[in-house]
Design a protein that fits this description.
Strand 3 (96-104), helix 4 and strand 4 form a beta-alpha-beta unit. The chain starts with 13 loop residues before the first helix and ends in a 9-residue tail after the last helix. It has a four-stranded parallel beta sheet with strand order 2-1-3-4, with helices on both faces. The protein is 39% helix and 16% strand. The chain has 180 residues and is of the alpha/beta class. It contains six helices and four strands, in the order H-E-H-E-H-E-H-E-H-H. It has a single domain (32-173), classed as Lumazine/riboflavin synthase (Rossmann fold, 3-Layer(aba) Sandwich). It is globular, with a radius of gyration of 17 Å. The protein binds 5-nitro-6-ribityl-amino-2,4(1H,3H)-pyrimidinedione (INI). The site of 5-nitro-6-ribityl-amino-2,4(1H,3H)-pyrimidinedione (INI) has 15 residues, from strand 3. 5-nitro-6-ribityl-amino-2,4(1H,3H)-pyrimidinedione is lined by residues 41, 43-44, 75-79, 101-104, 107-108, 114.
């Protein structure tokens, strides 16, 4: 979910904040030269393909070359972390992995298990490999909410995930956070 108008980041405060710290590591949305992997669940595919379309549009707009994008389809959200790990610890790891799925409470008795284990697995992979693994798995109460968060516009969760991926790759390459 994106910030609301009331709580969104206000760029005009950045200059002042920069002047009050020794180092300010700030995200970029430049995708040129980056290799990005997408892991997309087939379960609730009517929703996940909308997320994927939003992500692919954003990758193109931010300059990521089509040949630098790899896409893997997995059965459901529960399988996402394993595929993300395979990308993140490959011989030539991807710069970021974007995971896309939809877990809808109404559909399942084991909503908490599927959604919770997917989130835990994604976090485990990024902390153990240091490769940003972006959580683009919708967890909603209804199909309507999932449709709302996968609209083909600026609010599309898949699009938001691409910007998060580029942001994390860029800050992890700067200043104190850059690998020595
Ligand atoms: N997988 C999802 O991606 N979303 C769901 O809502 C869902 N439900 O409702 O159960 C779901 N289940 C499948 C699960 O992710 C695994 O693929 C399956 O359990 C096999 O391991």
């Amino acid at each position: 979910m994106t910030s609301s108008d009331e709580t969104a980041f206000d760029d005009s405060v950045l200059e002042t904040l920069r002047s009050r710290v020794g180092e300010s590591l700030e995200p970029s949305s430049e995708g040129r030269g980056l290799r990005v992997a997408l892991v997309c669940a087939r379960f609730n595919g009517g929703i996940t393909t909308r997320l994927l379309a939003g992500a692919l549009d954003a990758l193109e707009q931010t300059g990521v070359d089509r040949r630098d994008i790899s896409l893997t389809w997995v059965p459901g959200a529960f399988e996402i972390p394993l595929a993300a790990l395979a990308y993140a610890d490959a011989d030539r790891p991807y710069d970021a992995v974007i995971t896309l799925g939809a877990v809808i409470r109404g559909d399942t008795g084991h909503y908490e298990l599927v959604a919770g284990e997917c989130a835990r697995g994604v976090q485990d992979v990024q902390l153990s490999t240091r490769v940003p693994i972006i959580f683009g798995v919708l967890t909603t109460n209804t199909v309507e909410q999932a449709l709302e968060r996968s609209r083909p516009d600026e609010t599309n969760k898949g699009r938001e995930c691409v910007l998060s991926a580029l942001a994390m790759v860029s800050v992890l390459r700067q200043g104190t956070l850059a690998p020595s």
